[in-house]
Every structure is written in structure tokens, then in C-alpha cells.
What does this fold into?
Amino acid sequence: MSKLVGLWLDHEKAFLVSLDGDRVTTGRMESGVEGRVRCAGGSRSRTPWGPQDVVSESGMEERRKHQLRRYYQRVIAALEDARRILILGPGEAKVEFEKEMRKSTVLSAKISAVEPADKLTEKQLVARVKEFFTPDALRR
It folds into this structure.
């Protein structure tokens, strides 16, 4: 339970960096979420003022939302043994993930910070997580 975890995520993938004493482990998780797909639209009837087939965008958006929720739940399952968690990422994914974690009071207490971060290499991510969890930074 002494693990400190840094997490960088967007809607496509998540990178985890775990600090357990002097040991550093990294991992990657793909989301499998479909990208935004433009619907081709409906078709018209051959008769004037006839019925039209309409493509439901709300159904596709709802399916994407459920896929994202399942992805966030898989990432949360990988973070259960963490003591403190730093969440990084571009765009809305980090905020959506934080909201999903805040639904549980146990997980909510583990969140140290949520910060914006552009794309990082694995080494940059490890350095950022180590810097965040240094004893001097923890006292701030």
C-alpha cells in the first residue's frame, strides 16, 4: 500500500508509472474506444413527402460513453493498491476520469492532483512523477 502512482491518460491509452520505494514500474493500457464516426445520414423516400430514415447520433454517442466508462473502470482496477495518485493528461479525459474516481470515497481520498500535460515520452513521465512525489514536493 506504499505505492505512489502517476497516470497519464487520454481517450485512446493510459500510461501508468508506479513508484514503490526505489522500484519503478511502467505499464500501458489501450482503451479500445471507437473514434468519433460521422454518420452517413439517412435516405429519402422515392415518394414526395414520404418517410425518411434518420440515423440516430445519440445512440452512437451513448455507445462511446459506455465504452469510455468501461475503460476508466479497467484503469481504476489497476490503481486499487495505490496510496496516492497523480493524474495527468490532455483534454477532457483526465477530468472525466477524476469524476469517475470521485464516485468512490476511498478512491477520491487517494487523488493527489490532476494536472494538464501534453504528450510525454515514457522517460519524461517517469521524471515528472518522481519530481511530484519527492519529499520536498509533498510538503508543499
Remarks:
- Residues 28 and 66 are 21 Å apart (CA to CA).
- The chain has one domain: 3-31+55-139.
- Helices lie at 57-78, 93-101, 105-110, 122-132, 135-139.
